[in-house]
Amino acid sequence: MKKKILLGFGGLLLSTVLAFGQETMSPAKPQSGPIVITGATIHVGNGKVINNGYVAFDKGKITAIGEGAAPASAGATVVDATGKQIYPGFICPITTLGLVEIEEGARGTVDDTETGELNPHVRSLIAFNTDSKVIPTVRSNGVLLAQPTPEGGTISGQSSVMMLDGWNWEDAAYKKDIGIHLTWPVARAARGRRGAGAQTPGQETPAERAQKQIDAIYNLFGQAQGYAAGGKPTVHNLRLDAMVGVFNGTKKVFINADGAKEIEQAVAFAKKFNLSAVIVGGKESYLVADLLKQNSIPVIIKETQTLPDKDEDDVYLPYKLPHLLQDAGVLYGLTGIGFWRQRNLPFEAGEAVGYGLTKEQALSMITINNAKILGIDKTTGTLEIGKDANLFVSNGDALDMLGLDVTNEYIQGRTIDLNNKHKQLYKKFSDKLGLPTKL
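User: That's the sequence. What structure does it adopt?
Assistant: Structure tokens below.
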């Protein structure tokens, strides 16, 4: 009898713990009826601004947008956004969001890297964790789409564009397997490493090591090109199967390269195999901007809120880089670092406004520019009739840390829950101290 009582008490305690530990945010339900947002300043995303405007959407698609009074729509839910701002959802490329939960944490919370150097067949898509507690904190700042990207090795794998809302990765997938990621070898020793300048006799030099890696890249792509040209194979090779898309134009090749020399080598490589290439990082891309423009190769810049790599560089170079590429006519986008820091993406973009970009150009950098680079600009990136209703409403300037205050958010017309773990903790301890809360 005593054992039964203890078991019963234990079960009750466990159920209580589970009840209080349950997730309080559920994925949004499909849009059930037309929604019209009125009275706001609308930032279309392509440089155009509509004052006192309206945007209407139904079944996940934008049906009307304009200035003044919204046309009548039977049964529509009307959201009064007078004095507020409407923006297209921000798009975050090249991130480990959804692949990493606790940085440097338990192994089960990190799933962004595979063993081996050449892994074009690895797919980040199936590792994407829709239950991540980090995702809602990023989503609450207007980031609605992301490109979870594998890391590690020379060729790290394939990425997809994901919606930051869904029950599972199948639900969240926006565009699957859009590209393959590789890191271009650097033919120099790591800076600041003790003894980096010394060379032991017989030891492989950084240049020799880099050339071996470059040869391996060329060799693999050469094999894959022949494999793709051979039609339907009788025996399948997973690595080469994954690369067929880069030769028929359905997949891009995202090449991590910062130095001007490495970018030039990457462009020559892309031209040899007729690849649709994207430079990722591109810290010295402004030095070879003409080459990038001539070959229609865009750049995804990695953060602005950082210091330059070289002591002799302008200390403000990272802030100025978007403007330098804008003036050079190179298509450029922006990402942040890692996963949780992507919630700062709009502020990274806003930083460039003080160094040459207009506010609308900075907005385009993380909306339509990123959409073009990822190949999703036909359906998102701007607020236009026929595109997906991926948008949000903010009380203030979304590129300003003090101004961003998201009040309404929609992904394909679905009304997104803006709650997150940070807000829950803020409320919990504000309640404890008897402080007023504003969530």
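The chain has a mean pLDDT of 89.
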